[in-house]
Amino acid sequence: MLTNTQKQMVTNLRLQGLTYAEIAAATELSPNTVKSFCRRRHIKIDEAEPSESNICKNCGRPLTQQPGVKKKAFCNTQCRTEWWNKSRRRHPYRLTCYYCGKEFISFGNKKKKFCSRECRRLSRYGEDTA
Fold this sequence. Notes:
The chain folds into three domains: 4-40; 52-87, no CATH class; 92-125, no CATH class. 38% of the residues lie in helices and 8% in strands. The chain has five helices and two strands; from the N terminus they run ααααββα. The chain is elongated.
């Protein structure tokens, strides 16, 4: 049970922007005690400047978040599509086939060992099978 002095101290420190762990160290309380107290009293840190979660991932425009709704990551569908197309692009890797020694390009997978299914089959079973 927290004393009135501890409650006031936790409230003030949290409003100043300290984390639960920092408040716990300053007040000699458990971080879980501080966290549950702040949650029960709805004590939140004020966000004056836009944080990373309030900026569009693609163009960097500030986003307006609505309470009770899933947080936005993009300002519109066009930005979401552009970001997705840029970020999912697979990188080409120049590799050498484990069986035939031929150089080949693998898109997105740098652990690939063989240039083809045929080289994989020949490496595994040999020349005898057809």
